[in-house]
Amino acid sequence: MSLFFSESKAHVFNAGAPVWGLDWCPVHPDDRSYHQYRQYLAVAPFPTKSHSPFIGSRVRRPSPAYIQIWTLQSSSHVDDPMEVDESVSHKGNPEKLGILGGTFEDGSLTFYTIPDPNTIRRAAGNFMEQPLLGQIRPAGASWANSEIVAVGCTNGSIAVYNVKKALHGEVNTQDQPLLPTHYFRVHQSAIRSLSWIRAPVYSPDGEVTEDSPTVIASGGYDGVEYITDIRDMCGNVLNRTRDLVMAMEFSTYTGSAVTVDHENMIKAYSVSPSTLGRGHTVLEPNGPIWSLSASDYHPQLAIGVTDGSVLITNTMRTTRRGGLVPFLEHKVYQLDYSRSVGEWRMFENFLPQKTQNRPAVSRQNKSVPVGTGAWPPEVGIHRVAWNDGNGLGRTPLLASATGSGLCRVDWLLGLWARDQLPYTGIEGMRGETAGVFDEDEESE
To answer: Which residues does residue 329 pair with via DSSP β-bridges, in sequence order?
Structure first.
């Protein structure tokens, strides 16, 4: 993008078909220097542009499909900072980049060992390990940690697997299928999205333990958002909406499950026992939401919308009342298709906009600008993902994928309002200094 905007730090690449899967590869701190601080991005497009899967219907193997591994590196050392490592082929046992897991159209939850791209380029042959384990008709998956994964199925059930022994080769999954540790029915129809509530687990004595998370937030095609503790496997209703629940994310900063509501609203529902189910509106885009992404390192929420726009907003600001700084939403870019000339257009450099409270504005008989709803399906932003697995210095990287196959990686840094640090500095933000600050007086 720097060819058109000199100040832009974004990179655009074409995956060749509509992309519905996107995730960053976490690299261990001890291995980052070996990889020359490259960032790896897994991209899962459809086999063809005209491919259209059916929910709950499995395809027979072998079925053509592929996952691309893209490499992002510093543009000061290479001509093309985004390149694809297409030839995943090697004979023997090369160094491994990591474990890649996904849900596939043949009804399996499959894990693959991805070899180191640096080793692949110097080798030849065919290399792709067999699936480590499988499960019938999954619709989505979420990792609790490096060992526990939850799978939402098309029959409304949730299956929880402990894959530690399988990944380490202690269990032969070819002879004996790996059984879930938990399997329970929650929804009345297919589960579209789910997310672990990564909160500390307490013992009966009230002490924090090192146990894995036990709470899952899920949303399905029945329009209901549930929160379930796998220790009792009984779902509690967070919200009911007159729409499909297309996305579900857990926000570490607000301690809430961020999901969608009717009329294209994004809401954050508290998961604290004292305020369970209490929600507030975060943002109201101009179209239905395809994807949400929350980071563990900052409170910015990324939103992928069907109108081709990628939005970010601060989830922490919505919990405060008053103040001189308004609630802002930032449009990173918007993809558009020109039917007259048959070209894709990508708009950026938008000014921040004040978040509109549409119900309140409607009660005041004021007009609110809305979209037309007539967008080509190819411009929809299917996936957004913050780079959370490579340290604090890489968290400004935001990847997004569209229905046209065009994908983009943005480097996003924040600015302080009026270039002034709030709470008199970093020490005040951390609560290391006492006293009353200007922001507190303005809020009152």
So the answer is: 313, 353
